[in-house]
């Protein structure tokens, strides 16, 4: 948004003030009237700067943080909160016999703490990460007990039950807001199902297939917040939520998107003074961003677009033999497929 009041500088304000003072009075800098008006002009300049900030906060496109939330809440769209990861853990005695532990027992893996919150079966417990966000999703392996538990010899952290999620970003919140206000959402149409799916924390995007098995049937393919195939727990959560909001009589099937790995290989001519690792990292980031951008919206990964991204990387003077999954051609995506970044191989 252009700053409407950007021209209202201190110099312009004080000159306008002095213009209203009769010329018979000394108005030079340092005069009594100049020194009397100068503080007010400075404060007015600050006020105009704040006026521009108020305007920025009033519109979704330029608002941030709590001011964006105020705007989106008017449309019934709340920021999705951070979620604590919930993980399955296996507990054993010295003889590898499954054993139970007290609820509330605490464990650590890679400096991340977990607490036992529910018994699933003998020797299997649900552990909640003590910090919210995606940090609790990553480590797997042997846990260190932070409490003395008689008989416990081994504890292993395994499957994700509920995926941890960071608090929804401003970008994601704006996207959902724009989708709501710009799409013709009516009861039970395609856009409505997509909106319902994206209302579930952890869902980054969704694609709706109406009438996929005849009248009254709807299929929804979902991707997680990182635009990767969704874990089964997230699929279940979305399916359960949509059952509470769908029109009566509709049969809804929710599935994870199918990831199609995209491997990129090319020979490049490096510009002097650049490191290959820096070029590689920038290209990897650019390709990953492009693949996430086209997920569910394009039927192919463009060979030409990948080439354009490579040529635009600082340090790349030229390239040749660019191949996607071993061929110099576009990669076709079927209805439920989303492209996911595979290997990047840049040869100098």
UniProtKB/TrEMBL annotation:
The record's Pfam families line, in alphabetical order, gives:
Baseplate_J_C, Baseplate_J_M
Q: Which residues form the Baseplate J-like C-terminal domain?
A: 262-346
Q: What is this protein called?
A: Baseplate J/gp47 family protein
Q: Which residues form the Baseplate J-like central domain?
A: 186-256
Protein's organism: Pelosinus baikalensis
As for family, the record states:
Belongs to the Mu gp47/PBSX XkdT family.
């Amino acid at each position: 948004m252009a700053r409407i009041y950007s021209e209202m500088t201190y110099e312009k304000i004080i000159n306008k003030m002095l213009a209203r003072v009769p010329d018979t009075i000394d108005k030079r800098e340092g005069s009594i009237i100049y020194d009397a008006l100068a503080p007010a002009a400075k404060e007015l300049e600050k006020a105009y700067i704040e006026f521009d900030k108020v305007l920025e906060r009033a519109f979704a496109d330029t608002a941030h943080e709590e001011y964006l939330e105020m705007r989106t809440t008017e449309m019934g769209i709340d920021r999705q909160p951070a979620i604590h990861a919930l993980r399955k853990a296996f507990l054993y005695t010295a003889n590898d016999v499954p054993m139970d532990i007290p609820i509330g027992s605490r464990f650590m893996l890679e400096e991340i703490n977990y607490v036992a919150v529910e018994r699933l079966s003998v020797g299997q417990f649900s552990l909640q990460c003590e910090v919210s966000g995606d940090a609790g999703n990553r480590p797997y392996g042997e846990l260190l007990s932070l409490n003395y538990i008689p008989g416990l010899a081994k504890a292993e952290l395994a499957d994700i039950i509920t995926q941890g999620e960071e608090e929804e970003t401003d970008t994601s919140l704006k996207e959902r807001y724009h989708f709501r206000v710009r799409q013709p959402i009516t009861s039970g149409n395609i856009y409505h199902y997509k909106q319902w799916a994206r209302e579930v924390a952890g869902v980054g995007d969704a694609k709706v297939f109406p009438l996929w098995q005849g009248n009254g049937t709807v299929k929804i393919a979902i991707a997680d917040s990182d635009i990767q195939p969704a874990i089964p727990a997230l699929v279940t959560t979305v399916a359960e939520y949509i059952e509470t909001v769908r029109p009566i009589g509709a049969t809804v099937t929710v599935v994870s998107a199918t990831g199609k790995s995209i491997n990129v290989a090319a020979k490049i001519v490096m510009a002097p003074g650049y490191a290959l690792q820096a070029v590689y990292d920038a290209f990897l980031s650019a390709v990953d961003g492009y693949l996430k951008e086209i997920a569910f919206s394009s039927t192919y990964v463009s060979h030409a677009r990948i080439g354009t991204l490579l040529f635009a990387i600082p340090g790349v003077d030229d390239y040749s033999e660019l191949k996607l999954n071993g061929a110099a051609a576009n990669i076709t995506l079927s209805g439920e497929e989303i492209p996911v970044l595979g290997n990047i191989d840049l040869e100098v």
